[in-house]
């Protein structure tokens, strides 16, 4: 059980860090004018999304499911936590769709939007950690 919990925490930390950092790569791509820097930003985005964010998200969710099967689905806080995790998954998909839109030239958002967007995962992560540590209900 401790192994599953350790995996869950480790991959959740990696996924959370990537969710916080990824929008700044979008800012970099939107603001850069040079072709070489744009290629670099696109490469960094794809690498982070495909090789760090998505695998860590899948492993964090998988380890979380493993924990639910081991410990049971008890506590009202767990229902709320799972709803917040679902919102994190939606944000993850949103980041991927924005990356694709920018790459195809269909992006309509300014860099200011991408600078504000990291507030969403920051609030979700804070709420999840608070729920897990306090188990208020």
TrEMBL record:
Pathway: Porphyrin-containing compound metabolism; protoporphyrin-IX biosynthesis; protoporphyrin-IX from protoporphyrinogen-IX: step 1/1. Pfam families: UPF0093. It is found in: Cell membrane. Its main location: membrane. Keywords: Cell membrane, Heme, Iron, Membrane, Metal-binding, Oxidoreductase, Transmembrane, Transmembrane helix. Its cofactor is heme b. InterPro entries: HemJ-like (IPR005265). It is an enzyme of class 1 (oxidoreductase). It is a multi-pass membrane protein. This is Protoporphyrinogen IX oxidase. It comes from Noviherbaspirillum album. The lineage of its organism: Bacteria, Pseudomonadati, Pseudomonadota, Betaproteobacteria, Burkholderiales.
């Amino acid at each position: 059980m401790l192994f599953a919990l350790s995996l869950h925490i480790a991959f959740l930390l990696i996924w959370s860090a990537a969710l916080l950092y990824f929008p700044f790569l979008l800012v970099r791509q939107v603001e850069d004018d040079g072709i070489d820097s744009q290629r670099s930003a696109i490469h960094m985005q794809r690498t982070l999304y495909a090789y760090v964010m998505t695998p860590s998200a899948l492993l964090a969710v998988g380890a979380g499911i493993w924990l639910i099967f081991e410990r049971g689905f008890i506590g009202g806080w767990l229902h709320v936590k799972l709803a917040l995790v679902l919102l994190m998954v939606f944000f993850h998909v949103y980041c991927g769709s924005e990356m694709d839109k920018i790459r195809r030239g269909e992006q309509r958002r300014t860099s200011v939007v991408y600078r504000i967007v990291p507030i969403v995962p920051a609030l979700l992560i804070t709420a999840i950690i608070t729920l897990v540590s306090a188990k208020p209900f």
